[in-house]
Amino acid sequence: MEHNKLSRTPLPRIFLISSGEEDPDHNIRLAMQLSRLPRSISCMVQIREKQLDSRQLLALALEMRQVDLPEGTLLLVNERIDIALAASLDGVHLPESACSPDKLRPVAPKLIFGCSVHSQKSLSIAEESGADYLLFGPVFDTPSKRRYGAPQGVKKLGELCRTTKLPVFALGGITPDSASRCMEAGAYGIAALSIFQDPSRFVETIEQFHHIISP
Length: 215
What we know:
TIM Barrel; 32% helix; alpha/beta
């Protein structure tokens, strides 16, 4: 697809999602994580601080853009195409209920657009609207997603992966132990939030995932 970066450079396979608790004025956990990424491992990084107002979110995005990232690492923001453009980010991640990529791409043809999907129907919609990647979950049980119902499971992940050529990232309860099961089911990569929040094990966790999911 000539309209996006995916046609030129394969996406990283590790998808790091921010805590959702960042404050642009102090205690920046995300900056610490980004600065400690191993230089040889590129990642997708999603800023998803929904509690921040536009000014605060832009300040956070601009600060994260200044971090010296490993080559190939892509910085995205949740839903806010205006923030992505203003902070010169690499893309936007769209929740299942958000505006579709084909409506946004004319405004920002160089951005990557990814979509959360929870069913075959939403996958088809995202694929037809020009998504660059898909985020599917929750695959396994995870406290943050229990209010949305039972986990989808590896079998459902595999069924979904077999119906699309788009890169599919498995999300929800992902650990180094379960990551290999997701890759065997056909996932392109893994996405996680909670497991990356322990600063004492951050680098080790990234390296473990890299070893497991590298082709």
